[in-house]
Design a protein that fits this description.
Layout lengths: L12 E4 L2 E4 L3 E2 L3 E5 L1 E2 L3 E3 L6 E3 L4
């Protein structure tokens, strides 16, 4: 089991001048307000359960 990682909200954005840009991906089902959690092998939405698996190299 992995350990829960606390991520501060300002670590999810890049600030350029007067604009903030998102670093992570948004959930395609829930919309722009929900980030996808990044795991070793997949991206997962904690709200609706959407999962997208990463390709292994």
């Amino acid at each position: 089991m992995g350990k829960h990682k606390n991520v501060k909200i300002w670590e999810k954005y890049d600030v350029e001048g007067d604009e903030a840009k998102r670093k992570g991906r948004s959930c395609p089902r829930c919309g722009d307000g929900v980030f996808l959690a990044e795991h070793d092998d997949r991206l997962t939405c904690g709200r609706c359960g959407f999962s997208e698996f990463k390709e292994s190299e």
